Amino acid sequence: MKNKGMSEIVQGIARTVFPFIVLYGISLVLYGHITPGGGFAGGVILTGGFVLLLLAFGKEYTFMIFPVKIAKVLDSTGAFGFLAVALLGFAGGFFFYNLLPKGHIFHLWSAGTIIVSNIMIGLKVASALFIAIATLSMSRLLYTKEGIKYKKSMEEEEE
Amino acid sequence: MNHLIILPVAIYLGAAFLISLLWRKDDKLAGAAAVSFVFLSAVISIISGIDVFTNGKMLYFAGGWEKPLGIVLMLDPLSSIFLIMTNVIAFFIMLYSTVYMKKYTWAPYFYTLFMIMLAGMNGILISMDIFNIYVFFEIASIASFILVAFGLKAEELEASMKYTVMSFIASTMILFAIALIYGFTGTLNIPAFMSEAAGLSPVHLWFLAGLLLSGFALKTALVPFHSWLPDAHSMAPAPVSAILSGMFVKVVGLYVIIRITTNIFITLPQIRVLLLLFGVLSMLFGGLMAYGQQNIKRLYAYSTISQVGYCAIGLGIGGYLGCLGVLMHFIAHAFSKSLLFLNIGAIEYMTGTTEANQLKGLNDRMPVTTLLGSTGMLGIAGVPPMGNFWSKLIIILAAIKAGYPGIAVLCIIVAVITLGYFLKLQRTVYYNRVENPVKKEAPKMLLFPMGVLTLLVFISGILLVPGIKEKTLDRAVSVMENFSYMDIKIGEKR
Amino acid sequence: MIVYILLALMFFVGLYGIIAKKNIIKIIVGINIVGYASNLLFILLGYKWDGIAPILTENMSITCFVEKAVDPLPQALVLTSIVIDLAFVAFLAALAIRLFEKYGTFDIDKIRRLKG
Q1: Which residues contact B387 (CB under 8 A, 6 or more apart)?
Q2: B222 alpha carbon, distance to own chain's centre
Q3: Number of Cβ atoms within 10 Å of the Cβ of C9
């Protein structure tokens, strides 16, 4: 895997920094009802971590760690879970009603269904943006010395 | 019973992600699931429509939060007509597309995107905040951009690119108008804004009117803003063209313009003159450009521009007759234009081309398709027992009564022009003679939705019979004329 | 006051990018800039002089919060608008790549097969 992707220094730093980016993204998602952040911002930061891996290591390695098939399943599960949380509100009388117990203010489990919604949205945004960027990276253009050429099959990539 | 308002949107969103989760590889199960979900929503919308027409408007507070704090959803007779039409036409188009989509790869993703577009369209019809309308409008628009480019041929991608960039400018103008509405009055609720709008100076109201009208007129394809429509509607797959031309242009464009001019800009009578101008230009332009087209779908797209011009004229005239004409024309044109696009899709499925100079003698080869298509063409041109004739007559009478005889004469001229190009099309494509015709009829699942839509085109004039008209159309027209009922007090339940 | 003039300038720079440039990638960059301008207008409407961010912390009373905090409603609406613009740009970028595969160029004068 040495000749795909960028140089040694970039790969070393990417390997070190990646867990911290994922941790930061998860913290933004989980504390979305107390501090600024929430589902969408946390999801975008999570995608940023995976894009760093994609740029530093090349696409075969990244798709080995996080295949596109799993991303598609997580995507639909996140959206469907959000709708299930909204439909559960019917048990309280209205659509989207906040029916889980609300504890003390400023603690983690304090705002009812908001935290579950945030987790579902974070999953969905991270997977959806990852699929979008993975699709853009699978384009079939080839940069040769004569200019830009359209790659006809998978074997030409070896050249 | 009020919970039925929110159910169609929830069902469509759930169906979209369920199909993408479970049946991603399986065409038949995805198609069956899509058809059953659309059928469920159509039944729910008919039930809630019957409730609204007998008991008055329905309110719903999402999440239990009352009026100043939360999002209020409302269904009144005007939105109920649009809701029933959207879901019923979508059901027939879904039946058609289970067979038609065999020519395309990735059919389950087509069903997912179609469900998201239907969720967006239903959401516009039930919301009462202007920002809620904007969010659902964007959901439906983005789904429709992807659906137009679904076949991934070169021309389809180019058409989708033009449509996307032009529609983005419209969205930006609408967002600017929403920002200015919030800055001037501090509220985003439509009835609350209406009561505050009396205190604004005319300069502010004119600026808002300009931004909002130019944004929504681009989605309605009125004439200075029409240039995306012939490319986008002619290059999309046939069921997508049918729902775009039949319902999307009217739900996303015409319905919101009706809400804005009759509820927000009621103090500016010059808006109606502007709508009259756009309507007359659209009618003439659409009718004249349709003569030179070789691609049949492009001809139908120009015909859509022309007929939406009729609706804009009816809205610009106002009064009882004008509003009745708009509603009736919307209903009749939705049925007949969807029928025509499904028809050309069936012809393309069997023969592989949509150019008028390559298709000959279809009456000998596909008799049932020809019969249904000819009825649809006569329907749009306005031949007496079908609904379009009555609606054009009502609009012409409204123009004469309001003191615009020139516009009435133009309407009659454009009706004759419409009949002209449709008869020419029938003569060259359907009723030619060709030697040794090979008789190969379209599959039955493609013919059944077209047959039901033809029947609905025939009997849509029944809505104007005096007993039925009081119960259905008159209530919707009174919504368009009396706007003062829209103010909802705190604590009101119904 | 000068903030609004600069905002209008940014909007017109983006609009120049959409209307007058011929490369599709430059049109997409123009779309991004126009999106930033309209979101920024929305947030600026809720600003109060010497206001604090609308986050409730431990020892703040509700009346003090209501008097001093900047209006939080436009911030929620702008979050939705940012997501919508992201969807537009993602779709346009994928469309631009596919257009390059079919037509061989990014120039919109040459991508013109539909006429009439």
Answers
A1: B328, B331, B332, B335, B336, B379, B457, B460, B461, B463
A2: 14
A3: 11
Asked if C60 reaches chain A (Cβ–Cβ under 8 Å), the answer is no
Cβ distance B95 to B448 under 8 Å? yes
Asked if C36 and C7 count as a contact pair (C-beta separation under 8 A), the reply is no
With beta carbons under 8 A apart, name residues in chain A contacting B17. 76, 79-80, 83
* Average predicted confidence (pLDDT) for chain B: 87
Give contacts of B192 with chain C, Cβ < 8 Å. Answer: none
Neighbors of chain C by Cβ distance (3+ pairs < 8 Å) = A, B
Using beta carbons and an 8 Å cutoff, which residues of B are at the interface with A? 3, 6, 10, 13-14, 16-18, 20-21, 24, 60-64
**8 Å CB contact between B190 and B129:** yes
Q: For position B490, what pLDDT does the model report? A: 58
- Chain C residue with the nearest C-alpha to that of B231: C114
* Chain C residues near residue B172 by CB distance under 8 angstroms: 34-35, 38
- Beta strands at B58-61 and B72-75: parallel, antiparallel or unpaired: antiparallel
Average pLDDT, integer, range B125-150 = 92
Identify which of B21, B24, B62 has the shortest CB distance to residue A77.
B21
For B383-439, write each residue's pLDDT tens digit. Answer: 888 888 999 999 999 999 988 889 999 999 999 999 998 998 888 888 877 777 777
A98 to chain B: which residues are within 8 Å by CB? 63
**Residue-wise pLDDT tens digits, B326-365:** 989 999 999 999 999 999 999 888 888 888 888 877 887 8
- Is residue B266 within 8 A of residue B254, CB to CB? The reply is no
Q: Cβ contact (<8 Å) for C97 and A139?
A: yes
Q: What is the DSSP string of B55-82?
A: H--EEEEGGG--TTTS-EEEE-HHHHHH
State how far the alpha carbon of B98 is from the alpha carbons of B107, B234, B351, B379, in Å.
9, 21, 19, 26
Rounded-to-integer distance, Cα B21 and Cα B18, Å: 5
What one-character-per-residue DSSP string does chain A give?
Answer: --SSSS-HHHHHHHHHHHHHHHHHHHHHHHTTTTSS--HHHHHHHHHHHHHHHHHHH-HHHHHHHS-HHHHHHHHHHHHHHHHHHHHHGGGGTSTT---SPP-STTSTT-STTHHHHHHHHHHHHHHHHHHHHHHHHT--EEEETTEEEE--SGGGGG-
Give A140's contacts in chain C (Cβ within 8 Å): 101
What's the pLDDT score for residue A157?
42
- C48's CB contacts (< 8 A; 6+ apart) are C68, C69, C70, C71
Task: Give which of B177, A141, B127 is closest to C102, Cα–Cα.
Answer: A141
| ipTM above threshold 0.90 | yes
Under an 8 A CB cutoff, do C114 and B235 touch?
yes
Name the closest residue on chain A to residue C79, using Cα atoms. A40
